[in-house]
Amino acid sequence: MTIIDELGKASAKAQHLPAPITSASRMQSNRHVMYILKDTSARPAGKGAIVGFLKVGYKKLFVLDDREAHNEVEPLCILDFYIHESLQRHGHGRELFQHMLQKERVEPHQLAIDRPSQKLLKFLNKHYNLETTVPQVNNFVIFEGFFAHQHQGHGGPRWPGWDHSTAPESQGGLTAPT
């Protein structure tokens, strides 16, 4: 079992899910990116400890706008987000989330969130003033302003910060704030 598998299990347990939604094998087979926050000063022997992770990826979705019109979009999606329970409410989640926003060059209201927990919704409201959702028939949550910066281009709507022409075939990468 890899550290990614362990993180996925911890996230599933914290969210009361029947099974993990993040695993090493899924990371290898999907074009998702996993941002990992590590405390380099933690023991043992200065190797550090993982504080948490944030998994994102682009997904083709059918979503309703505020007029209930159907739209096919491919936004960046929050797929899993976990900060170890003993380290929550210390700013680590915001640090990790902010790093992802900068690296992916997106604004919080441009994200679609897969089955967000109440904790995540409260986090987004507190730190990014995301409160008003646009009701959907799928498991994704989008917020007011989601459609404000949508670009119509070849192949359908695209979001700023994502170059679809150069997307890697299999990313499965790990990255962390520097």
UniProtKB/TrEMBL annotation:
Catalytic activity: L-lysyl-[alpha-tubulin] + acetyl-CoA = N(6)-acetyl-L-lysyl-[alpha-tubulin] + CoA + H(+)
Post-translational modification: Autoacetylation strongly increases tubulin acetylation.
Sites where the protein binds acetyl-CoA: 81-94, 117-126
GO cellular component, one term: axon
Documented EC number(s): 2.3.1.108
Annotated N-acetyltransferase domain residues: 1-147
Predominant location category: cytoplasm
InterPro entries, A to Z: Acyl_CoA_acyltransferase, Atat, GNAT_ATAT
PROSITE patterns: GNAT_ATAT (PS51730)
GO biological process: neuron development; regulation of microtubule cytoskeleton organization
An example molecular function term from Gene Ontology annotations: tubulin N-acetyltransferase activity
Record site: Crucial for catalytic activity: Q15
Keyword terms of this UniProt record: Acetylation, Acyltransferase, Cell junction, Cell projection, Coated pit, Cytoplasm, Cytoskeleton, Membrane, Transferase
Post-translational modification N6-acetyllysine, affected residues: K13, K103
Region (Disordered): 154-178
Comp. bias (Polar residues): 167-178
Subcellular location: Cytoplasm; Membrane, Clathrin-coated pit; Cell junction, Focal adhesion; Cell projection, Axon
Residue stretches in coiled coil: none
Oligomeric and partner information: Component of the BBSome complex. Interacts with AP2 alpha-adaptins, including AP2A2, but not with AP1 gamma-adaptin (AP1G1/AP1G2); this interaction is required for efficient alpha-tubulin acetylation, hence clathrin-coated pits are sites of microtubule acetylation.
Its biological purpose: Specifically acetylates 'Lys-40' in alpha-tubulin on the lumenal side of microtubules. Promotes microtubule destabilization and accelerates microtubule dynamics; this activity may be independent of acetylation activity. Acetylates alpha-tubulin with a slow enzymatic rate, due to a catalytic site that is not optimized for acetyl transfer. Enters the microtubule through each end and diffuses quickly throughout the lumen of microtubules.
Similarity annotation: Belongs to the acetyltransferase ATAT1 family.
Protein name: Alpha-tubulin N-acetyltransferase 1
Source organism phylogeny: Eukaryota, Metazoa, Chordata, Craniata, Vertebrata
